[in-house]
Design a protein that fits this description.
Blueprint: H1 3-30, H2 48-71, H3 74-79, H4 84-115, H5 117-121, H6 125-150, H7 161-169, H8 183-198, H9 246-249
Helix pairs in contact: 1-8, 2-4, 4-6, 6-8
């Protein structure tokens, strides 16, 4: 093993993971008011209502696919009846569809951020850096899937990248597993690691502030302010006004 390979497949992932964890702790303690997406919906909504759902739906599919392909051993999938051919077809078709959807949504969001003046002025330097690494990660991953899995003979990443990640998680690094991995997959892993290091310092922190408690909150009872004023039916004309009761006006 060369020094560069140890740096890329042992040192870099652990450093990025440490920055990811400690960076979120620091950001939450010292920048709670900045823990937000800094929504720009008030500046422009037409492009946003197309790009945002496409990107978020696609990225959720991408994350789910990576979780299954990288974290779950293939023997577990065999045990529930998902063989290699079935997995390959599902991963290739669904993975390609998710990648296209995510890239299309990201392209719309970047186009919107670049062409709408008010949105562009609200874009920070970290936003631009984040978009570069996010786009590079998605492009390298998509290119690797298309080149090797769709049009190529297929690369067995579940025998190399997947066990490498699982071994890293339990602190038993095995960088030899990444030596023969194709370049596009290696670039995908490297840019993804750097993206995780940038994550705590960008708007991506909003991923960890999803309103989960909303699903379990108590019901809220609202009082109606319609024309019927609750259960009272409306009447035509003026309400009759009776003369005051003299007995109630009399002082004790």
């Amino acid at each position: 093993m060369s020094t560069l390979q140890i740096v890329l497949w042992v040192v870099l992932p652990y450093v990025c993971a440490a920055v990811f964890i400690l960076g979120h702790i620091w950001r939450y303690r010292y920048d709670k008011f900045g823990w937000t997406t800094r929504s720009s919906q008030t500046y422009e909504n037409k492009l946003l209502q197309w790009g945002s759902p496409m990107f978020h739906l696609g990225i959720l599919m991408v994350i789910a696919g990576h979780a299954v392909g990288l974290l779950i051993p293939r023997e577990w999938l065999y045990a529930i009846g998902i063989d290699e051919h079935m997995y390959h077809i599902g991963a290739t078709v669904l993975g390609t569809a998710a990648a296209i959807l995510t890239l299309a949504g990201l392209a719309i969001l970047v186009f919107r951020r670049r062409t709408v003046a008010a949105v562009f002025l609200a874009t920070t330097t970290m936003d631009k850096v984040m978009y570069v690494f996010l786009g590079a990660t998605l492009l390298f991953g998509t290119a690797a899937t298309v080149v090797h899995q769709v049009f190529g003979g297929g690369f067995a990443y579940r025998e190399t990248i997947s066990p490498w990640i699982r071994e890293m998680i339990i602190f038993r690094p095995n960088p030899e597993l990444m030596v023969g991995v194709p370049l596009l997959f290696q670039l995908h892993v490297i840019t993804a690691s750097l993206l995780f290091a940038l994550w705590p310092f960008t708007r991506l922190v909003h991923v960890f502030s999803a309103p989960v408690g909303y699903l379990f909150r108590p019901y809220i009872v609202y009082r109606s302010r319609d024309e019927q004023r609750g259960s009272r039916a409306p009447k035509r004309g003026w309400d009759p006004v009776a003369a005051p009761d003299p007995a109630r006006l009399r002082r004790p």
